[in-house]
Amino acid sequence: MSSTELDTSTLAEKYDQLSDSQFENGKLLIKELQVENGHLVLDIGSGTGRLAEYVAKTVGKKGKVIGIDPSPHRIKVASSKVKPSSNLSFEVGNGEDLSRFKEESLDRVYLNAVLGWIENKGTTLAEIHRILKPGGKLGLTFTSKNIQKAFSTDRQVADRLLKKEPYASAVKSDDETPRHPIKTDELILLLINSGFKDIKLDIKKNTRYIPTTKEYFDKKEASAHGNFLANIPEKLRGQFKSDLEKELEKNRTPQGIELTNYSLFATATKS
Ligand SMILES: C[S@@+](CC[C@H](N)C(=O)[O-])C[C@H]1O[C@@H](n2cnc3c(N)ncnc32)[C@H](O)[C@@H]1O
After folding, report:
1. Is the pTM of the predicted complex or chain greater than 0.90?
2. What three-state secondary structure class fits 254?
3. Contact 15/74 with Cβ under 8 angstroms?
4. Domains, the chain, with CATH or none
5. Average of pLDDT values for 222-229?
6. What is the mean pLDDT of the chain?
7. Which atom of ligand 1 is nearest to the CA of 43?
8. Cβ < 6 A, ligand 1 pocket
9. CB of 50 within 8 A of CB of 18?
10. Model confidence at 1, in pLDDT bands (50, 70, 90)?
């Protein structure tokens, strides 16, 4: 089952409104990727198309941005941003099947906050290498598995709860399926094995202040397209959510609930 089968139009519309943090990271990634006027760009896991719409302005009329996403709900919201004779288009499509794209046909390919949802990352990265032009670049933003586990505030709060009953005996704390987070060194190995060179990595600390736990859950649910807390058995999910809410409230400051995490940025060039 694809991770997007539980997505809904409500979650997709909410994501479009609540995805400022992903959008801001995406803009930084696009700068690092040196996207230029005239470039042909593929946005894998484009979601509701905010970043693709932004990139379309940079590549101008001579360029083109194609966004693909397996969720028809996200593609519907994204397609509403396409104007007649636009250099922007969206199609339902999975990052694990890029066979529709021709060899050496694209200048830039990026995945913004998507890599963790791709199960077979080796195949996808090799396919991206195939479809990029020589000298073309790949860009990724992602959360690194071990860095997230060690430093993300909400992940630490959740992990502490999962060590206690009734969760400890019911949940495998390391199993995040259908997400498949990757460690940074594992990603570097995959990039090298796929033929990429000039691999650059950067890390950014994000501190956010969330006014209410409702806003926190709304953003998490919309970002996970129906898979939020999928690793917790359904009968325990309500109780876990209210336990998590109480724990998150302990991080309240005058500005809101303080949450820290780290975003990873990677760029690589096709040799
Ligand atoms: C957190 S959202 C990021 C959306 C967008 N890239 C952005 O910058 O806002 C994750 C996206 O990954 C998509 N996704 C999940 N599995 C995928 C896959 N196998 N291939 C491509 N996209 C996938 C989801 O549908 C969702 O739109």
Report:
1. yes
2. coil
3. yes
4. 9-270 (3.40.50.150)
5. 97
6. 97
7. 6
8. 3-4, 19, 22, 26, 44-47, 50-51, 69-71, 74, 94-96, 112-114, 117-118, 223, 225
9. no
10. low
